[in-house]
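Re-run with default settings, no changes from the original entry. Doing this only to confirm the output is reproducible before filing.
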Amino acid sequence: MSQPTTWDHPEPLAVSSAPVPHYGTGSLADLLPTLAAGMDVPGMSPAIPELAPADRNCVFLIDGLGWEQLLAHPDEAPFMSSLISSSRGDTGRPITTGYPATTATSLASVGTGLPPGAHGLPGYTVRNPATGELMNQLRWQPWTEPRAWQPHPTVFQLAHQAGVHTVQVSSPTFENTPLTKIALSGGTFRGKLSGEDRMDLAAEQLAAGDRSLVYTYYAEVDGKGHRFGVDSDAWRGQLMYVDRLVQRLAEQLPPRAALYVTADHGMIDIPFDEQHRIDFDEDWELRAGVALLGGEGRARHVYAVPGAQADVLTCWREVLGEQFWVASRDEAIAAGWFGPTVDERVYARIGDVVAAARDDVLIVASEREPRESAMVGNHGSMTPAEQLVPLLQVRS
């Protein structure tokens, strides 16, 4: 007769087995410092060595366009697909976002040139240690003083101070948002509604200086992915449209210029059934000892009631450990999930327990997060579908 064991569940995924983003060598946080270093901006270093310097640099960030999704749709994106072999300085390789792979975190990494543990936006929603409330860092609710939350200068600000012609070209909606102020400010903001107008203005502004740094952005690939999924006709239609925008901008590059096309995260479709969508609001085991549930479905920050941290970690590992990398705050930090270091002001924003999905599964919260729980396409974790993003280039 076999002897009973003290562990009735399969071994949970090892924290060390999570594929940590390539901070310092090939992540979103390394892109602008590399470009700025090539324009002789003080304090910047070329962290992505494959990128040759250019006097005029344009970054076009397409929200939600992951590397794997681009590879899977060459017919819908013929122009961008033609650039894949030249990706990342002719290596044909992508870069990683950062953890979590979500818009607020990634845009802060792009603009500050810092990983999440330094800039301090380590999730979609995180606890504000000063108030004990969850803060949505994309919508900036409840209101928090932006510069107190993220005090570091942006690369755009440093480039502008160094005499580089620096411009952000985006929807007018974003001009005065707190996220723009702390992540993407510096130089001049120029608002244009249509994608075509943004491309034309970005090319015009790129040519307006001997040294130029221009950033432009398009959101609706992500929007259609969340609503309909990355296997939908609506999503494919947006991919076709943005492919034409990239070509329009590339064909207008002035001399001595480089265009880089990247994204803030990829996306994965999750089926609507109990096997793939675990509802925190209906699961008494996962709720036990939890004061606040933060993050998003594939990248959760879990804040325990005082004294319950160890029990919550044990429970979440037992319930989810085959499908999620489940770590304590200190384990996630030591593993480098949020970057090489975590600033003291950022430490308590990170969950007592951090859960990152490996499998095609979500932790939804149908009552407290009805909008997010209804999304078809999701992102946030460290899988290749979410973490890998393009770094396509066109040089004039």
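Residues 132 and 292 are 9 Å apart (CA to CA). The chain is about 30% helix and 20% strand.
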